[in-house]
Specification:
Layout lengths: L37 E5 L4 H12 L3 E6 L2 H14 L4 E5 L5 H15 L4 E4 L21 H29 L2 E6 L12 H25 L3 E8 L8 H4 L8 H8 L13 H8 L10 E4 L10
Parallel strand pairs: 1-2, 1-4, 2-3, 4-5, 5-6, 6-7
């Protein structure tokens, strides 16, 4: 396996004229085109993030991956290069380290150039912050709960604040955060994750107002609220060793009108829409991709 192509090559080849306010060239016929645009993705080596990275590259975009694990980044770069050689680069970084983020932000600005968008994908849960069925809230690890809040909330807050400075300088850009059904109603056992995702919702709305009202209508912030997708971090909660659903998994299916879990690829269309010029008058929104879970009361 070759070493990842980290940070030395210019990625940006933005098509379409931009004026001083970053106005999009009105002559383009395809508002959904993301070809030759450059997007930074944090935490894009997991199941959902990896699918989004592959989708963007397949549709002609260039991606900058931000993550902590050189091994995972190396593997993902190799996979993306097999799709479209040279359209992906990576930076090894702790997303909770503000000083590191600011250094990377400067490198992106000087060595890569403008970025058209940021997708904040870092997140997840850990066992100590997840109550077992036989536990009460008094058994939870508060230290692990704080870690979960940090990575899911501040792992989005810090990259957004730092990289949005580049967007303000260039006059345009779009940010997509990842919320959750756990932000909308009580999902048992996952207190820290729920608090963090509720924070993502208000942070999305707050930043949408802040950036548009002070820096113009070409800088937008939205979020996607996925329903239930089986990934490495929740597989044991939702499925048994034989592949059947756990009690929790069955409850979710019973309360999802479509009667199934989502596939990672089913987030790609919403991400595409929010990154593209087709959503140019959309900011501060939280968009459910959940098979109808949030629309059903359970009765």
């Amino acid at each position: 396996m070759g070493s990842p192509k980290y940070d030395n090559e210019v990625l940006h080849d933005h098509r379409g004229l931009q004026d001083g306010q970053g106005k999009i060239n009105e002559m383009t016929d395809n508002q959904f085109s993301i070809e030759n645009k450059t997007y930074a993705l944090s935490g894009a080596t997991g199941a959902l993030g990896g699918s989004i990275a592959e989708y963007l590259v397949r549709n002609g975009a260039k991606v900058i991956l931000l993550g902590r694990s050189p091994e995972k980044l190396d593997k993902k770069i190799e996979e993306l290069d097999a799709i479209s050689d040279g359209n992906a680069r990576a930076f090894v970084i702790d997303l909770l380290n503000e000083a590191e983020l600011r250094k990377i932000g400067k490198k992106i600005g000087t060595e890569i150039g403008p970025i058209d968008g940021l997708v904040n994908l870092a997140g997840g849960n850990i066992p100590g912050a997840t109550l077992r069925p036989d536990q009460t809230i008094h058994d939870i690890s508060l230290g692990d709960t704080k870690k979960v809040v940090d990575i899911n909330l501040f792992g989005t807050v810090l990259p957004t604040i730092v990289l949005s400075e580049l967007m303000v300088e260039q006059g345009y850009g779009t940010i997509v955060n990842i919320s959750s059904m756990a932000a909308k109603q009580t999902i048992s056992r996952v207190l820290g994750y729920s608090m963090a995702k509720a924070g993502i919702d208000i942070f999305t709305k707050w930043m949408a107002h802040e950036l548009a009202s002070k820096h113009g209508d070409k800088i937008r912030v939205n979020a996607i609220a996925p329903g239930f997708f089986i990934g490495n971090q929740n597989r044991r909660l939702l499925t048994n060793d034989d592949g059947s659903f756990t009690d929790r998994g069955n409850k979710i299916i019973m309360n999802t009108p479509m009667g199934r879990f989502g596939d990672a690829s089913e987030l790609n269309g919403m991400v595409h829409y929010l990154l593209s010029d087709a959503s140019s008058f959309v900011t501060g929104g939280i968009f459910d991709v959940d098979g109808g879970f949030s629309s059903f009361s359970g009765v």
